[in-house]
């Protein structure tokens, strides 16, 4: 059990604290994430395996394929797969904010030297924090969903007007406008990145959590961006290491196809059949475990960054621990 003193930290100390919190929350948040992710990932792997295996058995060389029994079997399999995938996707959409909520909660407790059991974590997390984080995600999605089309329409109108003057100038304006839109998106994403920590730690509402995150990050935006960039590189590196064996296996299969006539309809059957054998339920088991680790590590690094920024802002007395308000009625 940790008892951190909240003072400004270096980059290395932020990641070190995130690493310690990750391993100390394995028995609580990690166990809960495993129980959430693994069954869903196994069912998703089974669905995709059945889909590609069915596609690999179809006789697509028939002249009237739509009238063949294979076509009817494909339609029935597709319907069953989508009926299974839709609730799995919904469960994942709820599981992601919940897993972030319990990870932040477990990390705060460990950082303050307090021990929280799994039952207590379930009880507290299902109160305000989870629902506020869920609503926060919906608010961000709604803002992004409205802002992107509006920006695209503005760029389209500007380019239509400028095209009458100079085509090259219109292309330049579109490029610069798109670049500005990307920069604004990155700035906004970094600024609201600690909204979940504000919801859990200070018991804020979804909107106030976003505003508080922006106020906290704004003076230290480049510091927060740097931590997020390094974290993204680490997670990308881990994902690449994990995906290399499957990528090499499939690349070898694609190379073998270079020796056959790719216009032959039977080649598609071979590809689907191979994908069916490659995408198995057991392949999604390590994917789920990797997802659990990435969620724990990235969330706990964000928690360590949140502590660092609040310490830099002077929110804590020298050597004081952070007083949490998690789930307090």
Q: Which secondary structure elements does this structure contain, and how are they paired or packed?
A:
Layout: H1 11-24, H2 26-56, H3 69-111, H4 118-125, H5 128-163, H6 167-191, H7 195-202, H8 206-217, H9 221-257, H10 265-278, H11 281-313
Helix pairs in contact: 1-11, 2-3, 2-10, 2-11, 3-5, 3-7, 3-11, 5-6, 5-7, 5-8, 7-8, 9-10, 9-11
What features would you describe in this structure?
79% of the residues lie in helices and 0% in strands. By secondary structure, it is an all-alpha fold. Mean pLDDT is 77; it is low at 319-329. The protein is built from eleven helices and no strands. The protein starts with 10 loop residues before the first helix and ends in a 16-residue tail after the last helix. The protein has a domain at 11-136 and 221-313. The protein has helices at 11-24, 26-56, 69-111, 118-125, 128-163, 167-191, 195-202, 206-217, 221-257, 265-278, 281-313.
